[in-house]
Amino acid sequence: MKQKDILLILGSLCVVTIAWIIFNIYHTTVTSTIPETITTQVKPITPDFDIKSIDALKKRQKITPNFGFPSSGTPTPTPTPFLLPKKNQPASESSFLR
Fold it and tell me: What's the whole-model pTM score?
């Protein structure tokens, strides 16, 4: 390919890309995702806030949770001792299979 052919292809690609972007922007501004019946029902929010309630919320006592375990007051569990029978000790009656 010659250099003029490459420039012609690149130029036409740029023109098509710019036209695509312009038409896409036009399409998004013209079309709306909200139906017109709902837009007429929607009312803007008034920017008036209850200052007394906001001040009362600011004066609340802040509580920080303690997710750790208490260091004292809870007894540490100890394992129960396991008794092994002595070598000379005879087996009990419940240990025999019938």
Answer: 0.36
